[in-house]
Amino acid sequence: MTITDISLGNGEEAKQGQILTVHYTGTLEDGTKFDSSLERNAPFRFILGAGQVIKGWEMGFSGMKIGGKRKLVIPSDFAYGSQSIGNIPANSTLFFDIELLAVEDQETF
Description:
There is one protein chain. The chain has a single domain, classed as Chitinase A, domain 3. With 109 residues, it is mainly beta. The chain is globular and about 35 Å long. Strands 1, 2, 3, 4, 5 and 6 form a 6-stranded antiparallel beta sheet that branches. It has helices at 37-40, 55-61, and strands at 2-7, 19-28, 33-36, 44-47, 69-74, 94-104. Strand 2 and strand 3 form a beta hairpin.
């Protein structure tokens, strides 16, 4: 798993149990885009550490600050493994451009 900071952000740091609001674009190794919240203009929300997203996302967003942007390279072991999901083939390495937009405590969710 590779995590590369593009910009660090200067807001609150994401912690386990918080609700994160994020934008992302996901591609396969050959550059094929399989999903993008930016194209839908619909940020994605999930609880960090609750098992709602792939392990690579749990690792990639942990410790990130609001306003931060990262590139993630997620091996299949931390993604969907030997399962084929939608247009993501089995055993795929996934590439994500991610941005942390907001962090909230669960009481406000």
